[in-house]
Amino acid sequence: MGRPRKYHTAEEIRQAKCKKSKRWYDKSKRSVQGSSQRETTHGEIITPSVQHVNYWNSQVDCVSIKLEKLFQEKGAQQFIQDLYDQFLQDLSTGPFDDAIAAASPLQTSIYRYLDEILNISGVGTHWRKADVVRKRVCDAIRAMQEVIVEALMDIDELKVHYARKSLLFQSLE
């Protein structure tokens, strides 16, 4: 024979669970609160979302640095101009293909970082800062792709667009 039932109704069971949970929380309150907040050396409290936003912002900064390294510290416009000049000499899109292949992982990364920042803090200053980097990466890739497409369609037309300064890379910052 088993032990007699301690609680007979659903309401008694619910109340007992509430009391048990409250006892556990009262006993473990310090560790529960400590896991959700961390005190800095200056005594201010940082919540996990702020820690995560700072982490993703540092990742965005890394993408920006890698993009500058890809452009060889020249800036997007001058880098693509050099690729264009090289293309006119060899009539090979190889350098553009290589540059796009190098920039594509940065594009993938920046979109991931934007999503993470958006999930944590919404559209705010952190997200806008990351969006500026996303725009730089995407504009550079789009500009290089445009030159390749124009070259494949008609090289003479590419030269006309270049002379009119109507190619995307000619308007990059």
Descriptive account of the structure:
There is one protein chain. This protein starts with 9 loop residues before the first helix and ends in a 10-residue tail after the last helix. α2 (48-70) packs antiparallel against α4 and α3 (76-90) packs parallel to α5. With 173 residues, it is mainly alpha-helical. β1 and β2 (45-46) form a beta hairpin. The longest helix is centred in the last third of the chain and has 29 residues, at 125-153. Strands 1-2 form a two-stranded antiparallel sheet. Helix content is 76%, strand content 2%.
Largest sheet: 2 strands, antiparallel
Give helix and strand order, one letter per element, not per position.
Answer: HEEHHHHH
Shape estimate: rod-shaped
| Helix percent band | over 70%
How many distinct helices?
A: 6
- What is the CA-CA span between the terminal residues? 83 Å
Broad structural category = mainly alpha
Determine Rg (CA atoms, Å): 28 Å
Mean pLDDT: 84
Q: Compute the number of strand runs.
A: 2
